[in-house]
Specification:
67 residues, mainly beta, elongated
C-alpha cells in the first residue's frame, strides 16, 4: 500500500517527530505523518511542495521497537 498521491506531511519539531540523531543520522518518527486536508475531500485545494522537494524514491518505513 502506498501513501496518498499528494504525499504526507511531517512536522519534525512541533509535534516532537524529530527524535534527534543516531550514528550521525537524523531519526524521524513517521507515526506523526498525516495526510493533507485535500485527501479527504476533492473540493479542497492541496498545497503541493515544489518539484525540488520531491524524492524520486520510496521511503519504506516500519515500526521501531524498543528492546
Amino acid at each position: 500500500k502506498t501513501t496518498y498521491g499528494a504525499g504526507r506531511y511531517l512536522l519534525d519539531t512541533v509535534k516532537g517527530a524529530d527524535l534527534g540523531t543516531l550514528y550521525d543520522k537524523l531519526v524521524l518518527d513517521f507515526n506523526f505523518a498525516y495526510n493533507p486536508s485535500c485527501s479527504y475531500d476533492p473540493r479542497w485545494i492541496c498545497p503541493l511542495s515544489p518539484p525540488a522537494n520531491h524524492l524520486a524514491l520510496p521511503i519504506e518505513v516500519g515500526e521501531r521497537h524498543a528492546e
